Amino acid sequence: MSKRFNTGAALVWFTLIFTAVIALFPMYWLFANAFTPITSIPPLTPILVPAFQLDNFERLLVNNKFYLNWMVNSLFVGLVVTAWHILFDTLSGYAFAKKQFPFRNLLFWMIISTMMIPIHVTFMPLYIINRQLGLIDSLWALILPGTANAFGIFLMRQYIQTLPSELEDAARIDGCSEIGVFRNVIMPLSTPAIAALAIFTFVRSWNDFLWPVIALNKPQNYTLTVGVANMQGEFMTDWGIIFSGAALAALPMIIFFLVFQKYFLEGVRMGALKG
Description:
Structural class: mainly alpha
Largest sheet: none
Helix content: 55-70%
Order of helices and strands: HHHHHHHHHHHHH
CATH architecture of the largest domain: Orthogonal Bundle
CATH topology of the largest domain: MetI-like fold
CATH class of the largest domain: Mainly Alpha
């Protein structure tokens, strides 16, 4: 016997598909324009069927000698900042979740309260500090301020709190040091939350624009966001190069999310069930 048509389920699926199409259409439009020659690209008119030609990408790599530098700079900054976030945010989250020390809750909520401060307010003191350290116009000006984050500490603390303390006690009984407990127990069990933190951090670092445009001056030191923005001319804009540059800039984020999406979705699911 065939199942009866479920109107509610069909409506849910239709809503999800319709929302996904709307959300993904700008990305599709970007790649469709990138693969269409410049003579066929009206900047404000969506192109539904791309020409599948590489003219824009060829001109991008020929006319912009620093584009590969920008790609490498963005990858280096994004990966280093992500690695440091994973280390320091997880260490801090572990301390606030499992360790007992004076003023633990007060310190935690003081850190969380910094999330209410607009990031733009910090640019002036951040610039002065980096200038005094001689880091302006270097990638370290983008890396060092991003070694830890209040949201990352909060995320890891909330997740690590759900882990049973008996596993840590068993590891200590077996002779594990505190570093060993963190490395062999906490880190492996926190993989879903770490993957979610890695995605959030990498995407935020990759898309960051305001601070890099303030801290970087030389074209060879630009990140992709700053470099692509500077490709727009004062009197004429080569939209083909801009679309192709933006399309290549979006690829690492897409790949990064596809690689870690399994752990990311598991982290979100487990956080919803245990939180």
